[in-house]
Design goal:
387 residues; alpha/beta; Rossmann fold; 3-stranded antiparallel beta sheet; 21% helix
Length: 387
């Protein structure tokens, strides 16, 4: 079964990833420059959009429709009204009811809310406006962090929801630090299940500093992770030197020592090397941090949180991979939404704000599964995600 896929995207890195995976994608550039009629002379089967969410999201301070990024929503509305697709799908973040109502008014349908944690190890709640009939009898597939971590990973339940799910990956994911992830429940730290306490820290007042964890749990939601060190972390077994310090941190966990109105936060700082700190007369200046070192989730692990093939985004730098992974569609979730979409040979798709072409990835796998058109070049990437 063949289809024609038009993509509207301006980010050169996501375009590079899309073309590496789907070289037949027809790139149209800036959505604001798309002026129908387009080059095809056939009906549009489905219009897809995941308009930039920062203008609506809680993380984006609810800037709503006056935000430049949110205005792209109206480009989606323009194309929907002009091209009159048989089906449409718009994804966005959970937002204030008043903003939902405005979107619903323009699109003529109310949203459904689906959490991608039902399909993957990531807690990612999103709203979907669509006229595709969607089966809302969704059962959790039971995929946990252990299923997607590479061999050395051990995670911490302080960084997950009470159900053991991970926080959502976002565009600022690349700057995560472990103490901020624990305290703020953000920056896509991975989840775990506690198995005990470290005796070395029995005297320490912060409970999270004493816990030892196992990797059976859910990972946090992926963000776009731009900025230094924000991607999610997992613990690895080792012994490191460290110290207990007080730092002034802002609400995002960023160190602001000269902002004197901020209270001190006590935290453990772990050395990156295998050395100890200089011995002093103060005990907290030199401590042994056992089984409590941290690393970021790898780009490959983030791909798995989004249900992508391993190394799907391995065509650009890691920083760009983290960013696009936080912004993109969750593949198994989209596959669930479109499983009742009528498929036919020659169907035409237009994807606005296409990113790494997550919808095309979901469509491609759905076609493979329904038609059994498996090939060595285009296999379904992992049987765990298709059960």
């Amino acid at each position: 079964m063949k289809y024609k896929y038009y993509a509207s995207e301006i980010d050169k890195y996501t375009i590079k990833v899309t073309q590496a995976n789907f070289p037949n994608t027809i790139q149209l550039g800036d959505v604001q420059e798309i002026k129908p009629p387009l080059e095809w002379n056939q009906e549009l089967d489905i219009l897809v959009g995941g308009s930039p969410c920062q203008g609506f999201s809680f993380a984006g301070k609810q800037l709503n429709f006056n935000d430049e990024r949110s205005k792209l929503f109206f480009e989606f509305v323009r194309l929907k009204d002009t091209l009159k697709p048989k089906y449409f799908l718009l994804e966005n973040v959970v937002m204030k009811q008043e903003y939902q109502d405005v979107i619903s008014k323009y699109l003529g349908v109310k949203p459904i809310m689906i959490n991608s944690s039902n399909f993957t190890a990531q807690n990612r709640k999103r709203l979907y406006w669509t006229n595709i009939p969607v089966d809302m009898d969704i059962q959790d597939k039971g995929i946990v962090l252990q299923d997607i971590l590479q061999e050395d990973g051990i995670a911490c339940d302080e960084m997950t929801s009470k159900e053991g799910k991970s926080h959502c990956l976002t565009a600022t994911y690349n700057g995560a630090v472990w103490w901020n992830s624990i305290q703020r429940k953000q920056r896509t730290m991975v989840g775990c299940i506690e198995v005990g306490h470290a005796e070395e820290y029995a005297h320490y007042k912060h409970e999270q500093a004493k816990r030892v964890y196992h990797k059976d749990g859910k990972a946090p939601t992926l963000l776009t992770m731009q900025g230094g060190n924000r991607q999610p972390k997992v613990a690895t077994y080792s012994t490191k030197g460290g110290r207990i310090v007080n730092r002034r941190l802002n609400k995002d966990g960023v160190r602001m020592d000269y902002q004197l109105d901020l209270p001190f936060t006590t935290q453990i700082e772990v050395r990156d090397d295998d050395k100890s700190n200089c011995l002093t007369t103060v005990q907290k200046d030199t401590i042994l941090v056992k089984d409590m070192t941290w690393r970021k989730l790898t780009p490959l692990e983030c791909e798995r949180l989004q249900g992508l093939s391993d190394d799907y985004t391995n065509h650009v730098s890691n920083s760009q991979r983290y960013k696009m992974l936080g912004n993109g569609f969750n593949i198994p979730t989209i596959k669930h939404i479109i499983k009742n979409l009528p498929l036919h040979d020659g169907m035409v798709v237009l994807s606005c704000f296409d990113g790494y072409s997550g919808f095309q990835k979901a469509l491609h796998e759905t076609i493979q599964e329904q038609t059994k058109e498996y090939t060595l070049d285009n296999p379904i990437w992992d049987e765990r995600w298709t059960k």
